[in-house]
Amino acid sequence: MNNRSHKIGLRFKRLTDIAIAGLALIFLTPLLFIIAVCICLDSPGSPIFSQKRMGYKGKIFNIYKFRTMKTGTPDISTDLMLKQASPITRVGAVLRKTSLDEIPQLFNIVKGEMSIVGPRPALYNQYELIERRKVLGILDVLPGITGLAQINGRDDISDDLKIQFDKEYVDNWNYLLDWKIILNTFQAVFTSKGVY
Fold this sequence. Notes:
single chain; two-stranded antiparallel ribbon; two-stranded parallel sheet
C-alpha cells in the first residue's frame, strides 16, 4: 500500500470507528444501564472502572471498563492476578466471560484515544513491555478494543507472542484486515477463548 492509499485508509478507519462506536452507544444504552445496576447491586463501588493505560505515541490515557473486580484491586496484569485470590465479583465473572466489560471503551473511541481494532493498550506500569512496543513501533498506532492477539488466544498466549501479533498488525495494516479481525472477534467472544 502506497503512502496516499495508507492515509486514505486511516481516514476511513477513523470514520468507521466513530460511526460504529456512536451507533453502538445509542443502541446499547439500555444494556449499559442494566449492567451498571447489576454491578452496584453485586458489590460496593462505582460500576465504571478507570485505569491508566499507555496509548498512542506513549501518551497515558484513562481506559474505561465496567468494573469486574472488587474495589481496591491493584493494577496488575491478568496473568499475575490469577496467582492470587480471585478479586473478580460474581457479575464481573459474567461480564468478563462475555466481554461485555469492554463496552465503555466505546467512549474512548469517540474521544479519539482508541480504535476498534489495534494492539491492546498496556498498563502504565508494564515498563518493559512498553519499551519493547516502543522500539517496534507498536505505539505508533491507536490501541484497540480488539486485535490480532485477541483473536489468536488473548490471555492464553505469552507477552512475546502478543507482541509478535501486534507487530504483524502494524506492519501489514489495511482497512480489510480490520474487518477480518472484527468478524473473527465475534467468534472469539462467542467461544470465550482465552478469557479469565
